[in-house]
Amino acid sequence: MGVKRSIGYGLAGSSILGVGVAAKRLFALDRQRGAYRRAWESHSLATLKWLSDLDGQGGTTGALEDRDEENAGAKDEENAHAQRPFVYVALGDSSVQGIGASSVEESYPARLASAIETAKGQKVALINISLSGATSESVEMGQIPLMRGLGLLDPGSEPDLVTLTIGGNDVMVPQITPSAYSLAIARILDALKGRVLVSTIPSFAPMSQDARAQDMSELLAEEARAHGAGLVDIRALSQSWSLASYAFHYHAADMFHPNTQAYAAWAQEFYNVLAKDAGLRPLDVASAPQWGIGSHRVAESEA
């Protein structure tokens, strides 16, 4: 009887410890929302200042003396092209913020930016204006107007790349019908110019909402093709993993957001589509250096 009682206490203790660890991870994940948002805001402000400073310098580090006017103009143009960063704007929801990753530097936009910089040998100016909890309506009513206000939709000032990942929250809001989602995506893509990559909605299996995710992903894909946007099939990627692997190896503690491993796979999918579209060399995104976020607020988490 004493042995059985000891075993029972041991199992109970292990169970309590497991619950405690899970609760700690969930709390850390919840704290990410504010920490990651502030980190990206700080980074994006620093990036915008950097771009503004480059504009003020004409994209150069200063003119050389004793040059005739014609040679000076040619040299300035050459320097401006060499020093001009690749401007990348990330739109979307908490998955674009990197919620669930160990740090904002492990988010898929940060990993993708590092891969682009490695492949092109050109600095990347990443402006992440995504929002945790965003739906397609949030992008249309908040993020697109913000781009417009920053001059990122002005003719001749469009980013070199825009990525859009939106729909996970739309799936969870019954009031947002698939047709309303499709129309919002169409209006968003109407507003964007230049190279745009749009990702499908990951699998929600085994949840009942997976049927909505499938319908919305198909509609999103139709709009992407109609607007000439590149399609990154994150849904197919998530369905390529076994259900057990998807649930326990590619999700954060809340079993909703992707984790660091998942975001690494997402970044590779984005890069593969971009490389094919833009003629970049094949690259293992994991081999690229960790992204150096331009912020003193580098948020991290154990989630």
Automatic annotation (TrEMBL):
| Coiled-coil stretches | none
Q: Where is the SGNH hydrolase-type esterase domain?
A: 90-265
Membrane-spanning parts? 6-27
InterPro entries the record matches = GDSL_Rv0518-like (IPR053140), SGNH_hydro (IPR013830), SGNH_hydro_sf (IPR036514)
- Write out the ranges of the annotated region (Disordered): 59-78
Could you confirm whether the keyword Membrane appears in this record?
A: yes
According to its UniProt record, what is one Pfam family this protein matches?
Answer: Lipase_GDSL_2
Q: Which UniProt keywords apply?
A: Membrane, Transmembrane, Transmembrane helix
- Protein name stated in the entry: SGNH hydrolase-type esterase domain-containing protein
Organism, as annotated: Schaalia cardiffensis F0333
> What is the organism lineage in this UniProt record?
Bacteria, Bacillati, Actinomycetota, Actinomycetes, Actinomycetales
